[in-house]
Amino acid sequence: MSLLPTNPSVFTHRKVVFLLASLCCLLWGSAYPAIKNGYALFGIAADDIPSKLVFAGYRFIFAGLVLLLIAALGKKTLRMDRRTMGQVSLLGLTQTSLQYLFFYIGLAYATGVKSSIMNATGTFFSVLLAHFIYKNDRLSFNKVLGCVVGFIGVMVVNFSDGLLRFEFTLLGEGFIVIAALVLSAASIYGKKLSQRVDAVVLTGYQLAIGGAVLLLIGIAASGTLTGFTFKSSALMVYLVVLSSAAFSLWTILLKYNRVSMITAFNFMIPVFGTALSALFLDESFLEWKNGVALLLVCYGIWLVTREEKPTTAPP
Question: Domain residues of the chain, as ranges?
Answer without folding.
Answer: 15-305
